[in-house]
Amino acid sequence: MEYPSLDKPKAGAFRFNTDSSQLEIYDGNQWTGILATSPEQQTGGTRGLMLGGYYQPEGGVVNTIQYINIATTGNAQDFGDLQAIGYGNASFSNRIRGIYLDNNPNNQYINLTSTGNSVSTGDAQASGAFGRSAAANDIRGLYQYDNGTNTLEYFTIASDAKGQDFGDAMSTYTGKGCCGASPTRYIFGGGAGSPWASAQYNTIEYVTFQTLGNSADFGDLTQARAGCRSTGGNAIRGIYAGGYSPVANPSPVLNSEVIDYTTIATLGNSIDFGDMSEDSENPAIMTSSTRAVLAGGNNGSPTPNNVLAWMEYVQIMTTGNSVDFGDFASGVNGDKIGNAGPMSTGHGGL
Fold first, then answer.
1. What would the CATH number be for the domain defined by 48-344?
2. What confidence tens digit (pLDDT) does each residue in 53-84 have?
3. What global pTM score does this model have?
4. Reduced to 3 DSSP states, what percent helix, strand and coil does the chain have, rounded to the nearest 5?
């Protein structure tokens, strides 16, 4: 039974609800429960997933889902399959559920605490969901259309509903990447003009998850480039690795090996973190509170050898070059994947 208070509680006040045996916080309007879950309780450690992607040397798109335990090192394992194949599509998650926005069209969700195939929601965006720049906190996922518009949309992760309009990004560049996410803020940047090779940009933008509105200027990347895929680092630092950058790394290799970091709670330019072992346009980046794992991508060399098989990692709160983590899961088309959709159960938005 809830008894009336003598005075209205202040936002941020705590209480213990003896009926539900749960600690609660007052958000300014109502008492809400505080969840005391962790990746260790849910999956035995922070779990990273890579969904879909394309492979070489044969060339094609896959429907495989692979996963790793970010706290360890080792090869990826088979998780299940997507309902529809895809690559380059936006993906985001909280600790329990992941959303993969498909441009087939057929949005899908995944239960991250178990293994198995994705489930179709039956909803998709009318103009397609191809896009690399996506991030989430525990409630909302955000992304920008990668189709030459500046539309920002948000999803309520617990719901199967279509995305809703959030506001507008500062630019219509394609190939933007996530530069970081905390529970309150989403940072994204870089990008390319149309056609893809015409120009690359270094602008970083940000929005606040629980509001609606247009993005604002955050700062600049150390290097103009496009194509990074990321779950955003931890709640303090954002990680942006690789990207397509023919200006910074001219022919015959057109991509970058540079890793940048940003301090999410501030405004300012990104800072050089170190380098990957190879140039990669679109490594899938999966993060925990301490570690970022960089997986695969396209190194820009002539086919059939342009898709990478490696996974590497860095410790987020240090600086330095990435080191070996392991390989993709073995099997048919499973050992070299580019442009997979990443998500994790312990990224900075959580």
1. 2.120.10.80
2. 887 655 678 888 999 999 999 999 999 999 87
3. 0.84
4. 0, 40, 60
